[in-house]
Amino acid sequence: MTRRRQIGRRRNTETAELNITAFMNLMVILVPFLLITAVFSRLAILELNLPGSSSESADKEEQVFQLEIIVRGDRIEVGDRTIGVLGTYPMGDNGYDFAAMSEKLGELKNAYPEKTDASILLEADIPYDTLVQVMDRVRMGENIVDDSIVRTDLFPEISIGDAPISAEGA
Hints:
The protein is α/β, with parallel strands linked by helices. It has a domain at 60-162: Nucleotidyltransferase, domain 5, CATH 3.30.420. Helix content is 35%, strand content 25%. It is built from five helices and seven strands. Helix 4 packs parallel to helix 5. The longest helix has 17 residues, at 21-37.
């Protein structure tokens, strides 16, 4: 019996030593590697507004021309809230005709150089990617001058809303 007690005591008296050297070596290499290869993304935030109500009182200049870009499932309409549609750009085989729309927006900016706001109105099932492309074209224009691309601000103050029901859809 004494022998069993001695064996039991021997087991209890031995302490296990943890060898964490390999783990520490792994951490020393892994942490800098993860920090170096981490992707740091830059966030860009655009401030968007809701379109003003038609009953709001506004300056004379704003009542003269209120730019609206209406994105429908089969076309994009550029127009004035009071006058109506100034240009219609149907969807082709390659998607919307953003180049023609940009050209029209450039003409409107030349006609109204002080105008900085525009309303983008969307139908219900327009993809988010289309909204982003339209916003980019409304905010900035590109011109080629001396073999280089020059970007200019067109209408950087953008409001987003729902498109009115089309007369063709009614």
